[in-house]
């Protein structure tokens, strides 16, 4: 196993420079299928960082911007029904978001309270508190997560959002079975209605473990992937189980489990040596690859829990292109994007996205950043 310490991180200037206003009408409130579209009919912005050229298209036409020999790296993690109802000793109803499963059967969790049809963080948990779950399960909250990852929003008065906890399931109940019976996909306020778990899965997901969907790959269909492969595009897998995100306060990324197969590392290294393009599908892929890629561009197989944080100062050594969604104002994901593209390029593309009415969030539109 490999455990990688976090790089030192001070909120980069890109976050401040990208402090734009996201109009509510540009938040994708439902899956594209509910809007009368197919998965791959969402919009696609293609931008070339070498000359700032921008093309507006649809995702189903992504093959027009890829070429034989390109290596596209996907994250095959499947999304858990990670939100489970819980009750405090005083009878207060809350929701537990299961985030990251750690060694020794510990979990990183977030506790939230109901607010109408949605939830918001709950900051009044005491160390050692045990929450009651359905069917006799319990969740014991041991200690706040590392101080380095406490919520940045000072309105919480420094209270922790994330906790280290132990989940006790009744009898021989398996986790996936319990979550299938009692859990639901994590949903934030911009998604107004509940949607089945199938809407939160990519078509190539094959190992359940992500608290939230690795959404950059959601628009791929089996037919589209087949078409790309038939035209010489290579698709290679890795795994990174994503933890919970939050729009209330943009914390730094914390540890997440990853696995890079040996064949994936080898195909990436061959493509890099031959000068072919390496395209990450999502920031999760970049984080996983950067964990095992040296500064001189050699990618190694491996697995473990990564705390790697990608910043402009650190740079990106594993890929030269990225397919990603559009990220919220001041989101730390923007630091990773600036590590790949210039701040000027990001400002141009995000301004174009706002002017052209692209949709944000996991059910929204996509952005392909090419060399």
TrEMBL record:
Signal peptide residues on this chain, from the entry's feature table: none
Recorded hits in Gene3D superfamilies, A to Z, give:
QueA-like
Q: Which domain of life is it from?
A: Bacteria
Is Transferase a UniProt keyword of this protein?
A: yes
Please name the InterPro entries in this protein's record: QueA, QueA_dom1, QueA_dom2, QueA_sf
A Pfam family of the record is Queuosine_synth
Recorded coiled-coil stretches: none
The answer to whether the entry has keyword Cytoplasm is yes
Q: Which UniProt keywords apply?
A: Cytoplasm, Queuosine biosynthesis, S-adenosyl-L-methionine, Transferase
Q: Which PANTHER family match?
A: S-ADENOSYLMETHIONINE:TRNA RIBOSYLTRANSFERASE-ISOMERASE
Query: What is the name listed in the Swiss-Prot or TrEMBL entry for this protein?
Result: Queuosine biosynthesis protein
Could you tell me which species this protein originates from? Dictyobacter halimunensis
């Amino acid at each position: 196993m490999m455990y990688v310490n976090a790089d030192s991180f001070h909120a980069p200037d890109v976050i401040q420079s990208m402090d734009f206003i996201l109009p509510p009408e540009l938040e994708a409130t439902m899956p594209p299928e509910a809007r009368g579209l197919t998965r791959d009919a969402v919009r696609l912005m293609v931008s070339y960082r070498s000359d700032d050229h921008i093309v507006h298209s649809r995702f189903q036409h992504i093959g027009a911007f890829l070429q034989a020999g390109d290596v596209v790296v996907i994250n095959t993690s499947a999304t858990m029904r990670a939100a489970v109802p819980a009750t405090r000793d005083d009878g207060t109803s809350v929701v537990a978001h299961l985030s990251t499963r750690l060694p020794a059967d510990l979990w990183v969790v977030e506790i939230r309270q109901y607010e109408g049809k949605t939830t918001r963080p709950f900051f009044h948990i005491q160390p050692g508190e045990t929450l009651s779950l359905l069917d006799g399960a319990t969740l014991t909250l041991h200690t706040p997560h590392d101080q380095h990852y406490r919520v940045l929003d000072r309105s919480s008065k420094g209270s922790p959002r994330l906790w280290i906890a132990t989940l006790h399931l009744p009898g021989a109940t398996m986790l996936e079975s319990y979550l299938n019976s009692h859990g639901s996909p994590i949903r934030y306020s911009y998604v107004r209605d509940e949607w089945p778990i199938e809407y939160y899965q990519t078509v190539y997901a094959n190992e359940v473990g992500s608290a939230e969907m690795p959404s950059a790959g959601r628009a791929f269909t089996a037919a589209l992937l087949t078409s790309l492969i038939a035209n010489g595009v290579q698709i290679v897998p890795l795994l990174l189980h994503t933890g919970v995100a939050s729009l209330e306060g943009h914390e730094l990324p914390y540890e997440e489990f990853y696995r890079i197969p040996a064949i994936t590392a080898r195909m990436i290294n061959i493509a890099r040596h031959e000068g072919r393009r390496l395209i990450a599908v999502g920031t999760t892929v970049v984080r996983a690859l950067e964990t095992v890629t040296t500064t001189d561009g050699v990618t190694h197989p491996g697995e473990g829990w990564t705390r790697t944080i990608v910043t402009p100062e650190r740079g990106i050594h594993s890929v030269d292109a990225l397919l990603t969604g559009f990220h919220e104002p001041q989101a730390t994901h923007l630091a990773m994007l600036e590590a790949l593209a210039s701040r000027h390029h990001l400002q141009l593309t995000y301004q174009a996205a706002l002017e052209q009415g692209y949709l944000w969030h996991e059910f929204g539109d996509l952005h392909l950043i090419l060399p």
